[in-house]
Specification:
The chain has 2 domains: about 170 residues, 3-Layer(aba) Sandwich (Rossmann fold); about 140 residues, no CATH class. Helices cover about 40% and strands about 20% of the residues. It has a 6-stranded antiparallel beta sheet with strand order 8-7-6-9-10-11. It has a 5-stranded parallel beta sheet with strand order 2-1-3-4-5. Strand 6 and strand 7 form a beta hairpin.
Length: about 325
């Protein structure tokens, strides 16, 4: 089950790794997050993007020490609190490096912004600036933060925010339950499916893709390097004979998937055990799990292609040129 919700994530860039992880999970259940690294284009207005926070259904705030001391993050906070119903649509995730519950914890951040305001005001007083000057505007902005930070911290305390560790341990249910998402559970998962197989080459690397089908519609997907420890060589598979993905009935809880195929060279049938092991690690496996989850939740091919487009957020870490090849394969099933 998916829900059409606009979900904004507010965070400090120092916490990008945490947000990447949350973003991957939400993509895997068909709920792409609105975040700066995906939405902002070259020369785009950062302030205009931040104002989008008021036009979304929910806001996930990654609360850290760097978040509460960031002028930009506090700008998003100030935009959010302009709406009277902001408390009902704000979801907080507390990182380990921040403490906000005791009066002394709150005082630390109230004092920080009071000090920032006084320091900047002192510098401005030394020079003659007009009201329209950027430093004067920043002083007004910091003054606004100073006036609102105490109330915002009180709101966070009253909300009984959960830590990232607790939220992850509960599979993000503290967030998804509020949004109205119910995790898809496929109790009728078939014992085996017939699979198509594809090969493509990128930067001298040969990749093999298995698309398991139910009623000729994609249902499972496994992506890995040809001849790797989890996958056989493409040339050994007889594509003219049914290729089968089989759930191991002796270890159902493990989710193990075996590949059964006829060998092109000798005509014998082979079982390549545990091709799902490709999902044990690596960034490619994360994306494959996301696509597989969307397929099994009956998402449309167009919705999955849109999700693939959203995945470019990770390209600053690894350039996944194979993404276009996967899109071309999925288009065959429209």
């Amino acid at each position: 089950m998916t829900v059409e919700k606009k979900i904004f994530v507010s965070y400090n860039w120092k916490d990008s790794q945490v947000v990447d992880e949350i973003d991957k999970y939400f993509l895997s259940i068909g709920l792409p997050l609105i975040r700066d690294k995906k939405e902002l284009q070259f020369k785009s207005s950062i302030k205009e993007f931040m104002k989008k926070i008021r036009d979304t259904d929910y806001v996930i705030m990654i609360i850290s020490d760097s978040f509460l001391k960031s002028s930009n993050c506090m700008y998003e906070m100030l935009e959010l609190v302009k709406d009277s119903n902001y408390k009902t649509r704000t979801l907080q995730v507390l990182l380990p490096n921040v403490k906000i519950f005791s009066p002394s914890n709150k005082f630390h951040y109230i004092e920080y912004w009071d000090r920032e305001f006084k320091n900047l005001k002192r510098k401005i007083e030394k020079i003659d600036l007009s009201d329209g000057d950027i430093l004067v505007k920043e002083l007004k902005h910091i003054g606004n933060i100073k006036s609102n930070i105490g109330e915002f911290l009180e709101f966070l305390s009253d909300e009984n925010c959960h830590s990232l560790e607790v939220i992850k341990a509960n599979n993000y249910k503290q967030l998804t339950n509020v949004i109205g998402f119910k995790q898809f559970h496929n109790v009728n998962r078939p014992v085996s499916v017939i699979s198509d197989v594809y090969l493509f080459e990128i930067e001298k690397g040969r990749w093999i893709v298995f698309i398991g089908k139910v009623d000729d519609r994609p249902y499972e997907i496994y992506i890995g390097k040809e001849g790797d420890w989890a996958f056989p060589e493409f040339k050994t598979i007889d594509k003219s004979h049914p290729i089968e993905l089989v759930l191991d009935q002796h270890e159902k809880k493990s989710g193990r998937i075996d590949l059964k195929y006829r060998n092109q060279k000798d005509g014998y049938f082979y079982t390549h055990e545990g091709i799902n092991r490709i999902f044990l690690d690596g960034e490619v496996s994360v994306y494959a799990r996301i696509i597989g989850s969307l397929l099994q939740s009956n998402s449309t091919i167009d919705a999955i292609l849109n999700a693939l487009d959203e995945m470019y957020v990770m390209e600053y870490e690894n350039p996944y040129h194979w993404k276009d090849e996967i899109k071309n394969i999925l288009l065959k099933y429209k």
